[in-house]
UniProtKB/TrEMBL annotation:
Organism: Exiguobacterium sp. (strain ATCC BAA-1283 / AT1b)
Record key words, sorted: Heme, Hydrogen peroxide, Iron, Metal-binding, Oxidoreductase, Peroxidase
Compositionally biased intervals (Basic and acidic residues): 1-15
Annotated Polar residues bias: 16-25
Active site location: 70, 143
Protein name listed in UniProt: Catalase
InterPro entries: Catalase, Catalase_clade2, Catalase_clade2_helical, Catalase_core, Catalase_haem_BS, Catalase_immune_responsive, Catalase_large_C, Catalase_sf
Amino acid sequence: MGNKKEEQLKQHTIDNEQQAGLTTNQGLKMAEDEFSLKAGRRGPTLIEDFHFREKMTHFDHERIPERIVHARGVGAHGEFQVYEPLAEFTKANFLNDPSKTTPVFVRFSTVQGSRGSADTVRDVRGFATKFYTDEGNYDLVGNNIPVFFIQDAIKFPDLVHAVKPEPHTEVPQGGSAHDTFWDFVGQNHETAHMVMWAMSDRGIPRSLRMMEGFGVHTFRLVNAEGKAHFVKFHWKPKLGVHSQVWDEAQKAVGKNADFHRVDLYEAINKGDYPEWELGLQLIPEEDEFNYDFDILDPTKLWPEEEIPVKLVGKMTLNRNVDNFFAETEQVAFHPGHLVPGIDFSNDPLLQGRLFSYTDTQLSRLGGPNFHQIPINKPVCPFHNNQRDGMHQMAVHKGQTSYHKNALNNNQPEPVPADQGGFEHYQEKVDGHKIRGRSDSFLDFYSQAKLFYNSMTDVEKQHIQDACSFELGKCESDMVKENAVDLLNRIDRHLAEVVADNLGVHVPEENNEVQSDKTSPALSMANTIKKPDTKSVALLLAGDVDANQVKQWVQTLADHNVNYSLVGKKAYMLGDLKVKETYDTVDSSLFDAAFLVSAATTVEDDVLEFIENTYKHYKPLALHVHHKEALATCRVKQDQPGVFTFDEHNLDGFNAFIDGIATARFWDRA
C-alpha cells in the first residue's frame, strides 16, 4: 500500500533540483525572468506581458484565504484632516478642505509570518491606510521602511518565496533568518539598501504607534491646471520612532505574542489615540533628472535634507474594530484605488502592484464584489454597469447594463474631468518594447552606504549583530559568503565583523562604496522623545506604603505615563488593584521599571525583572528601604538611567520621568 502511494506521488513530482530551462506553464522557454515588458527602459509595464501576468497570477492565488504576505495584521478606525489647502499641488478634495474630516481605516501587519505568528519578530511592517473620501476610496498602501527589496514586480514572487518558510520544512515561521532568504539577497544585490533597514532597529518596532509609514513608491500629484509633481508619502508618528532591542523582542514573544496588537487596542481604549502627520516630498516634473539617483527606483529614498518633507495634515486612530474578521481581515487595499489629483509614476514595482492587488482579492475574498463588503464600501455613491458575480449584495434595477445605451438615456454616464471625473495624467511614452532595467537603476550600494553612515555607533552595532544572527542561522557556507560579499560592497568593516562572527572568509578586495555622505533623518537617535503613553512596571516587594504608591501612580498619570502594578500575586493595595504578577508579565513588555521594596530580601523573579530592564538600557527607578535587599543584584546603581530616591525626593522622581522620555541609555556600562 505504501509503495503504491509512493509511486502515485512520484508521477506528480517535479524535481526542481535537476538542471532545466525555465518555461511558462505552457512549456514556452523564456529568455528573461528578471524584468517585466516595458515601453522603454523607464517606461510603463505593458499588459501584453503574458509571462509576468501568468507568474503574478499564480503567485496571487497561492494562499486561500489567508493573505500571502501581510497575513498577520491589526486594524483601527480613525480620521484625517489636512492643515491647509494644497491646490498648488493636487485637486484631490480631501487634501484641499481643512474643515473636512475624512474617515480612515489603517491596517498594520508583519510581512513574512502567517496569521498565527508573533508580533515582535524582525520583519518589515505594513502600513496601509484607506481614506473614505467624498470622491471615492483612496488607498495609501505602504510599509514602515521607505524602500523595497526589488526594483521590478516580476521578481516579487521570487522574493516572497525566498523569505517565506522554506517549503520542505515550513521553517522558520515569522522570520528571515534562513538560507533561502539570504541566498536571494546574495544573488540579487538590488536588495542591499532594504537589507540595511530590515537589519536595523526599524525591523523590531517598540509599538505600531511609534513607527513611521512610507508610501514607498513615487506617485504623482496633479493640480486643477494639469501641473504635476512627483511625490513620496510619509507618515510621521507624533510619539517619535522607537524600537526594541533584539533580546527584548525575543523575550516579548514568550510573554505576549500579541504585544503590538494589544498595545494598539489598549491605547485606543484608554483614549491615548495614536497620531501621525502626513508628509509629502515633492519634485516638480521638470526636475526629474536632477539627482544622483533615479527617483522612480523603489530601492532608493529621497534624502530629506535634499528634498524636505512638508507636513500637510494629521491622522488620528480613535476607534477599535467591532469584529476582527469583518473589518481587519476582510479589508482590501489596492494602490490603484485613486481619487482625482493623485496618479502613478512608471516605477516598475508599482506598475506590477496595480495588477496584483485586484487579482489577489478575487481569490481571497471570493469574487469580484469584494468592494461591497462593509469595510471596503465607499462612503460616496457608486454606479456602473458591472453586474452579478459571486456574493453580489446589491439589487440592480433597470433594463440596461452596458455603455453606451439609448434605452436608459446612457445612464450611468461618464463624468467630465472638470466635474470631478478621473483622468489619467497625459505622459508621453516613447520606447521599444523591451525586458530590461534602466542603467539609472544599477547603483545598488550608494544608498545602503548612506543609511549605514547615518547610524550612530550603537545602531551600527545592532546592524552587525542582526546580520550575524540571521546569517548564523543559515546552514550553507556559500550563502553566508555571498551575503558577506554583498556587505563588503556596502561597508568593509561591517563585512569584516560579520564574517568573523560567522567564521567565513571576507573577500580579499575591499569593494565598499567610497562615500561619507550622511542623512541625519535616517537615525532614530534624532527622533521625538517624550514620556507620553510609555508604560512603567511598578514592581512591589514586601509591605509597601499604599498611600505613597498611590502618589507616585498619580504623578505618572499626570505625565500621561501608563503603569501596571506587579506583585508576587494579584491583590488589592489599598484601593489600587495589583493585577499583574511576575508570571504573567516581563520587563520586555514595558518601557521602564520602578521597584518599590520594603522587603529585606528581593526574590529572584524581581531581580530578573530589574536586571533585564537594566540590560536593555531602559530607565530603572529604585525605592528600596533595605539596601541589603539588592546585595546580589547585578544592576550598577551609579550608571546612567538608574534613579534612586525616597519619598521625600521628588526631584529624583521627576528625573525618572525625564528618563522615560529618553527611552534608552546606550552609554550604560
